[in-house]
Design a protein that fits this description.
Helix 2 links the parallel strand 2 and strand 3. About 50% of the residues lie in helices and about 15% in strands. It has two domains: about 190 residues, Spore Coat Polysaccharide Biosynthesis Protein SpsA, Chain A; about 70 residues. The protein contains ten helices and eight strands. By secondary structure, the chain is of the alpha/beta class. The chain is elongated.
């Protein structure tokens, strides 16, 4: 029997993009010698995304819809789609078409012919993004590799292919705070990267501003590294050592020259500096405590409003291109 390929597409307020996204993905998969399904995950969209998806599904039996009860965020939406993907290989891709679906064929080839369990799309160029966005992204992944002591692919997003073995391994990970880019690599198996040119968004606006990206980077670091906590310990030791040296200097100076009560400004500066450092590291500890708090509650990762599976057993050879109107 021909292999089944599942494509998981998380979508949040993407009604303008969905039809073109479906068309391009379906065109690629129709040309492959495989059975396929396209699972769209509606992550609590407030626009007409769900209605567009249902119209597409009525015309294309290969389409399935995972409709979440509310907006849980992209990482959870990816998880929900992967949980319900039935494919021998599962491909994750964003709906905005910044990751060209035409590269799916190359991913499938690397899986089928070269035996890779995880194929990660890697940005060879990002001409449509600002210099600041490119620099901060490069800096984040390099910082994460340094802090985590684990080799994550640089400049890789959520455009991935996972074999069934890799998917089954990933489904065993049930942590609540999920940094999927890290989890895709953490599971191991035979992995490689596939360079590609990232495009501009096809339509609509991005759902990520710099504040959300900042919080996302904190999520990634705290999910895979305890180095910030260790840094607090080392920094405290350094401050304590310098304070001891300074105390010895002051005692010696007082014994020789007496105490004339100068140095009030410098004392205030030192107190404020140490207080600021303490608050920073209390915040770091708080980030880890918040994650422990969320984990011990054992709430489900997500809740479904409804699920409309695809007809994944649809015919393969000579299947006609489906046009959505």
């Amino acid at each position: 029997m021909l292999p089944l390929v599942s494509v998981v597409v998380p979508a949040y307020n993407e009604e303008e993009v969905i039809p073109e996204c479906h068309r391009r993905i379906a065109d690629v998969l129709c040309a492959e010698k495989c059975r396929y399904e396209i699972l769209f995950v509606n992550d609590g969209s407030s626009d007409g995304t769900l209605e567009v998806l249902r119209r597409i599904k009525r015309a294309d039996p290969h389409v399935g819809i995972v409709n979440l009860s509310r907006n849980f965020g992209k990482e959870i939406a990816l998880t929900a789609g992967i949980d319900r993907a039935r494919g021998d290989a599962v491909i994750t891709i964003d709906a905005d078409l910044q990751d060209p679906p035409e590269y799916i064929a190359q991913m499938i080839k690397m899986w089928r012919e070269d035996g890779y369990d995880v194929v990660s799309g890697q940005y060879a160029s990002r001409p449509n993004e600002t210099l600041l966005k490119r620099l901060t992204s490069k800096g984040f992944y390099r910082l994460l590799n340094f802090l985590a002591g684990h080799k994550f692919p640089l400049d890789a997003g959520d455009f991935r292919l996972l074999s069934r073995k890799a998917v089954d391994g990933l489904k065993q990970v049930q942590e609540r705070h999920r940094f999927m880019k890290g989890l895709f690599t953490w599971i191991g198996y035979k992995q490689t990267t596939m360079p590609y040119r990232r495009n501009a968004r096809f339509a609509g606006v991005t759902k990520y501003n710099y504040w959300k990206l900042w919080n996302f980077s904190i999520e990634g670091i705290t999910s895979f590294s305890t180095t910030p906590l260790k840094t607090a310990t080392y920094f405290g030791l350094v401050i304590a050592f310098l304070a001891a040296v300074y105390a010895i200097v002051m005692i010696t100076k007082t014994m020789i020259y007496g105490n004339d009560v100068p140095g009030y400004p410098s004392l205030i500066v030192v107190v404020l500096f140490i207080g600021g450092v303490q608050l920073i590291f209390l915040g770091i500890i708080g980030e880890y405590l918040a994650r422990i708090f969320d984990e011990v509650k054992q709430r489900p990762l997500y809740l479904l409003q409804d699920y409309e599976p695809s007809s994944a057993e649809a015919s393969v050879a000579g299947q006609e291109k489906i046009v959505i109107v």
